[in-house]
Design goal:
Distance between the termini: 9 Å
Helix content: 40-55%
Structural class: alpha/beta
Strand order of the largest sheet: 4-12-11-10-7-5-6
CATH superfamily of the largest domain: Type I PLP-dependent aspartate aminotransferase-like (Major domain)
Bound molecules: pyridoxal-5'-phosphate
Strand content: 15-25%
Radius of gyration: 22 Å
Number of helices: 15
Number of domains: 2
């Protein structure tokens, strides 16, 4: 298919011509960073952009190119880059010290705000990242139940925990990451997303050993159906297992109380990160008092779950979290972003239809994703995996050359800082790319 190679070569040539500064910095980075990056998913061919600064909904790279940003820094910057209230709060508090490694007022204040906003949260333990929150939740579930097995779902992502690093990419039955001993998966059950019957059979087969069930209530841009969540809730109750929602992406973003507020089905534990820190490293496990109680250091060792973390409760992260949640408390920014997400999706569908492009656009609130080659919205990641992901990557690269950034292959995340004018400009760029067939891989 020579036209494919030509389209890809044209886009790459354009990308290279616009970004010589990123190319130079990448060449330098290659000397000292494996693969030139410090995050396995921050590389894309031919080299990643290097960013100079960011503000609101916009990124500017080292060559002075400006982008409307739909990556929003791994999903963290829901209230916009360089948000003045976050920056001011952090700057003010840093004058008193950056980290005490001891209790201080902001930890309790932020926990109280999380409890107020997240429907199922009664107690909170802070971490420095989403991955740590996931790891801790597994230990809490195991400590609470005295059991070992954890059920996860095909295609969902939960950070870099060894035991969960299986089943999240097609063909969903193995790990595609070396360095993890096979024994790490001994207590992991991989279940089909949105398929209650098959999931229930797996969970019941291991009922007496099941400590917890972990899932993203919205995974990528695929939502767990309400009946599925209700079914999981009742099976966990029946088996005495802990239901864990990984809301590291969806927390505070989909609504004031996250995806659980929209679904109306509550977990025992909720994992938070990303939006909460407003760009500062923070994560949290929030949950029912009865379960979270296992963390109480005053319990006897045989019933106590221990979790440490030098930087947990870091002053800057706590101050940032408070400034973020104060701005998200009335749910208005979330509604604004969701309205723009809907506008973007409608515009995308119109452009694809007018140009005869077979593509499905999923949109849930502010999250938007395109699946080339599908004729109906995927209900799970197996269906998603049938879409033309190479075309999606090229489409994102082509958009980057026109000033719209979405990490190649990833979903778009509209933030509260985006405007109607951003959506108009994005759709104009998209029209340009699709009309010229720049995405045709
Ligand atoms: C759903 C989900 N869970 C967990 C994580 C891990 O969070 P972190 O990268 O902060 O460790 C991520 C990160 O992208 C995520 O998307």
């Amino acid at each position: 298919m020579p036209e494919i190679a030509a389209a890809a070569a044209d886009v790459e040539a354009l990308y290279r011509a616009r970004t010589p500064g990123s190319a130079r910095l990448y060449a330098e980075a290659l000397k000292v960073l494996p693969g030139g990056v410090t995050h396995s998913n921050r590389y894309w061919a031919p080299y990643p952009l290097h960013i100079d600064h960011a503000s609101g909904s916009r990124l500017t790279d080292v060559d002075g190119n400006e982008y409307i940003d739909y990556g929003v820094a791994n999903g963290t910057m829901f209230i916009g880059h360089a948000n003045a209230k976050v920056t001011d709060a952090v700057s003010a508090v840093l004058r008193r010290g950056s980290h005490f490694g001891m209790s201080h007022e902001l930890i309790g204040k932020l926990a109280a705000k999380v409890v107020e906003m997240v429907p199922s949260a009664e107690q909170v333990r802070f971490t420095n990242s989403g991955t740590e929150a996931v790891a801790h939740s597994l230990r809490i579930a195991r400590g609470y139940t005295g059991r070992s097995k954890i059920a996860r779902f095909e295609g969902t992502f939960h950070g870099v925990i060894d035991s969960l690093h299986i089943g999240f990419r097609s063909p969903f039955n193995r790990s595609d990451c070396s360095g993890i001993p096979p024994g790490a998966y001994a207590d992991t059950l991989v279940c089909p997303y949105n398929d209650l019957e098959r999931t229930a059979a797996i969970l019941r087969r291991h009922g007496g050993e099941l400590a917890g069930v972990i899932l993203e209530p919205i995974s990528g841009v695929i939502a767990a159906e309400q009946a599925f969540l209700r079914g999981l809730r009742s099976i966990c109750d029946e088996l005495g297992a802990v239901l864990i929602y990984d809301e590291i992406v969806t927390g505070f973003r989909m609504a004031r109380g996250g995806a659980q507020e929209l679904a109306g089905v509550l977990p025992d534990l909720t994992l938070l990160g990303k939006v909460l820190g407003g760009g500062f490293p923070v994560g949290a496990v929030a949950g029912r008092r009865g379960v979270m109680d296992v963390l109480d250091p005053k319990r006897p060792p045989e019933t106590r779950v221990e979790i440490f973390g030098t930087y947990s409760g870091n002053v800057a992260a706590m101050a940032a979290g408070l400034a973020v949640l104060a701005q998200l408390d009335d749910g208005q920014p979330q509604r604004h972003a969701a309205r723009l997400g809907a506008r973007l999706a409608v515009g995308m569908r119109d452009i694809f239809a007018r140009h005869g492009e077979q593509a499905v656009v999923n949109q849930i609130g502010c999250l938007v994703q395109v699946y080339f080659g599908l004729d109906k919205a995927p209900r799970d990641h197996r269906e998603e995996a049938r879409s033309n992901t190479a075309r999606r990557r090229l489409y994102h690269m082509a958009l980057i050359t026109q000033g719209v950034f979405c990490k190649p292959g990833s979903e778009g995340r509209v933030s509260a800082a985006h405007t109607d004018a951003d959506i108009d400009e994005t759709l104009n760029c998209l029209e340009y790319v699709i009309a010229r067939g720049m995405h045709r891989a």
